[in-house]
Amino acid sequence: MTTQQILAFCVIAGMMAVFIWDRFRYDVVACCALVVAVALGVVPVDHAFSGFSDDIVIIVGSALVVSAGVARSGIVDTVIKRMFPHLTSMRAQLALLMISVALLSAFIKNIGALAIMMPVAFQFARRAGVSPSRYLMPMAFSALLGGLMTQIGTSPNIVVSRLRAEMTGTPFSMFDFTPVGGVLALVGLTFLLFFYWLVPERRKQTGSIEEAVEISNYASEATVTGQSAVMGKPLGELLKLGDGEVVATAVLRGPTRMSPFPDLILREDDSVVLEGRSAVLDRVISGGKLKLSGKALKDGSRAQQDLISIEAVISRHSVLAGLSAGELALSYTRGVNLLAVSRRGERLRERLRDLVLQEGDVIVLQGGRKTLPIVLQDLALLPLAQQEVLLGTQRQALIPIGILALAMLATALGYAPVAVAFFAAALGMAIFGAVPLNDLYKAVDGPILVMLGALIPVSDSLRTSGGSELIAHWLGEIAHNLPPYGALGLIMLAAMAVTPFLNNAATVLVMGPIAASFAATLNFRPEAFLMAVAIGAGSDFLTPVGHQCNTLVMGPGGYRFSDYPRLGLPLSILILVVSVPTLMVFWPVN
To answer: One fold for both 226-289 and 316-379?
Structure first.
């Protein structure tokens, strides 16, 4: 071994050890590894920041913005909710959730797909009276399986495609991953559907600040318009959109107050006073196409853009206490709308404009992002929590889906590379307001992008120093008597063993060149071995820290570290057994 190879091995081994120690965040560890590699001469100074200009950084960041736009639209949640009455068993609900997550994960970032569907899982669990833990881990694993089906489904596929382009001059195309990934997804989902019970039923042990202050009895007023989906239909049709979590306390028809019976036929200009959590109220009002109370807010002569909604508490010194919304005329005097009110221990039935506000009431105000903080200060209102309130916010429904479809079509037909198509899609989300400009950079996972940019030159040091060829030689000596399927299985097993301790994209960056050199040592074609690395890196079912999807469900599901291998170990073995012959069929090694 040369000095450069020894140093490269030491830097990467030290980095992996710190990753396993889990004392520092992974982006900090990656940046420290880059600095050390440059200081030791393992990475040339003029290549230190080459990773930040790599296509993979653009693709991952853009995919996160696109995922945020699709999630914010609420269209997926609406479609699933309409199908809920037809699902009577938990297994049918779980099948729908897993299939939906897997299909979404094939086309958007898998953690984004999981985040889109998690609220639906909570709805199912609440209605079925079971713990969300029954749904969440199978959904997380389904997201990983779905990501294996396309080039942009998961970071390992993107990275391994870049590696193939460097080695052969031709990258993997969008759907080169589909034959093998589709088989694995089908087998994996079938296994999860029948063996989800391997995970013990858990209850969430700790709550978040947002849950601690979540208000369950907001009262809001909405009006039926000529464009409303429920005009001419019974009130019960509107309440169905809330899955039993919203009640109507009054229906106001002109000066007449009507009893909110489910069979009451709604007419144009009827005002309905609804009570429930803000998120469910938003689903009912947007799904029924009702108009919230308040007026259209304007900035000069134009409709005001970048509207948000904030929860706030009326303090002892607030000028709102003792006055009604009608007397205050907030829309005209302050440029904000009062959307909902919650009063502890009391069910509100009055129109919002007639309700006399009291100290301690929690209200939802709608206004411009820049003006609302000033209004809160002037009116002595206390922001309840730093969380997003969707009630009354501006959102698009079909535009995000259309943008995503255009990006996918452009890449599938070869009109644009993946990086360009998804960068354009992310830009489209911003231009058309699917993701507000102020939220755009919140959607981008900065730490993962920094980690990728820092790790690309560090991992490439194995190749430039000849270390990857050396490891391939060692593996070749181990597998020189193995048949092709044994050599392929060895590489995939090595990737599976590494990925619980490294980010999956980092695993491919480290293992990809080794796999290619390993294949060359044995005189095999590299494609199957690169695919094996991507599958191994993308199939992290053993720990809660190896992939963000697993981490995302750990808290809400109340899972323990030991719960993951209970379901994940047999699934990993199944994926390994099925992957090897499937790869040899679609990507022959000779």
So the answer is: yes
